[in-house]
Amino acid sequence: MDVFLVGVPKAGTTWLSNVLDQHPGIALSDPKEPNFVATHKGTFERDGGEPDWPKYSEFFSGNGLKMDGSVHTFACPFAPERIKSNFPDARFVLCLREPVARTVSHWNMVRSTGEDKENNRNWEDFEEAWLDDSLRVDSMYGTSMRNWLEHFDLDRFTIIDSSRMRTEPIEVVREIEGFLGIDEWDYDVKMDRHANSASSNRKTTVVGAIVMFGFSLIPGFVKSPIVKFLQRRDWNIYRLPILSMEEEYVPLDDQHYLTCGEELCKEISLFSSLTGFNHSDWESQIQGRIEACSENGSE
Predict the structure, then answer these.
(1) CA distance 222 to 113
(2) Whether the Cβ atoms of residue 114 and residue 178 lie closer than 8 Å to each other
(3) pLDDT tens column, 69-79
(4) What CA–CA distance (Å, rounded) separates 160 from 96?
(5) Exposed, middle or buried by CB within 10 Å (0-12, 13-18, 19+), for 155?
(6) Cα distance between residue 240 and residue 219, in whole Å
(7) What distances in angstroms separate CA 102 from CA 32, 216, 241, 255, 257, one per listed residue?
(8) Which among 22, 99, 30 is positioned nearest to 58, based on CA atoms?
(9) What residue segments make up the domains of the chain, in order of their start?
(10) 3-state secondary structure 23-37
(11) What CATH homologous superfamily does 3-196 map to?
(12) How far is 19 from 142, CA to CA, in rounded Å?
């Protein structure tokens, strides 16, 4: 394995992986998130068993640098040691987002898809959801990075603020090309395509579940061209009303910052001290929202 596109959910990795997949020098994993190396197999699922390493190669085809896009890898405490043992020369593209906004977006996505209830959780209330480590762990940037730096030098990472993908997408991919040592490519970087916003996630209907199950039975060599065709055109058939339904999207507000902001400011500070990736503006924004909420509550 050559490259891991890691961390964190709801930080633009779906868009970035689809853009980088256009480069002939990159072979993106299929699916984009095989969730194979880490014990974290998604928001909720954890599996501490040792991966079947020979099977891992089945997720990649074509020439170029093999890139795994499993975002939950960054928060997994066992992933750095596993990767160091099996892929000591790996490099990492780490995408981050202002952590309170990231957490709320992740929370909305899980609620919208009903994944919380499928895993015997109830995340209707954000304050209760924040107490669940399944939500918290992906926002612990400093704690996770400290674990990675015990196994890899900092120069094995390039760190991307997800907001830059919208404001300067070409600059972002050029930085990654330089980091990976590959030639420049002419990408389609339209931000209205290949996005995975929380508001676009929908809860699967009974009909949708049947269709998804049927699709899962199709052999990979038949299914892969179909999936790539749909992805290139940004067509998601599961957004059809008969296959899924919309859930209420809760906008980011001061109460969210009051719930988790102080803790996440400490994580930002720790991450900055470890990496030099200075985002004091995130801390200022979070503290400002906390103070505003506190003032409103005292009136």
Answers:
(1) 27
(2) no
(3) 999 999 999 99
(4) 6
(5) exposed
(6) 24
(7) 20, 30, 27, 15, 11
(8) 30
(9) 3-196, 203-245
(10) CCCEEECCCCCCCCC
(11) P-loop containing nucleotide triphosphate hydrolases (3.40.50.300)
(12) 27
Residues in a beta bridge with 203: 245
Place of tokens 């050559």: 2
Residue in this structure with the two tokens 């039975």, named with its chain if needed? 217
CB 96 within 8 A of CB 9: no
Q: Which two tokens stand for residue 189?
A: 């970087």
**Residue 234 confidence (pLDDT):** 56
DSSP H stretches of helix in the chain: 13-20, 53-56, 79-86, 99-113, 115-118, 126-130, 133-136, 141-148, 163-167, 169-180, 206-216, 220-232, 254-275, 280-298
Tokens of 182: 């590959």
Mapped onto helix, strand or coil, the DSSP state of residue 161 is strand
Work out the number of other CB atoms within 10 angstroms of the CB of residue 52.
9
Neighbours of 272 (CB within 10 A): 18
- The ranges of the chain with pLDDT < 70 are 191-209, 211-213, 215, 220-221, 223-224, 226-247, 296-299
pLDDT at 199: 46
Question: What's the confidence (pLDDT) of residue 186?
Answer: 95
